Amino acid sequence: MSETWEQRVEAYWDTSAGKSAEQLREELGELLQGRDPADPRVLFEMASLHDFLGEEEQAVLPYQQALQAGLGGQKQEEALIQLASTLRNLGKPGQSVALLEQIPSSSLLHADAQGFLALALLDAGRSTEALRIAITALAPHARLYGRALAAYAQDLDVPGAAQR
């Protein structure tokens, strides 16, 4: 049974650690060979490589183009999260927040998005909101005090709530 393109892309990312930028570019070039350069997945993979290599400035446009070209499903949410993280790293936390707020609570990546949202809110000077998001995301995973954590998270900016 032959590997699908999707499986080859996953294998590429699974084995990317420790490879040189040159090798990664060459391998991705081979994977993308023959595909339409305007294909949303091609744009997404190119943006992801720029991000992976720490080339945030070069990642922004292909992420935006992938989203505008109709990247769908979970890859759309991955692109939103990755673009938001990139924009935050480039000193644009407000744009990051706007993107991350698009990830619905029903998404499998909602918790991931909430972590990045907390970071972006903190960078945007909205520390109370950042802490609320982070604690709310953590609460369902707490062993004994999840309900209390969730309640305190909602009361963070209510005067006198901490004294209860």
Automatic annotation (TrEMBL):
Tetratrico peptide repeat group domain: residues covered? 41-156
Record protein name field: Tetratricopeptide repeat protein
The upper taxonomy is: Bacteria, Bacillati, Actinomycetota, Actinomycetes, Micrococcales
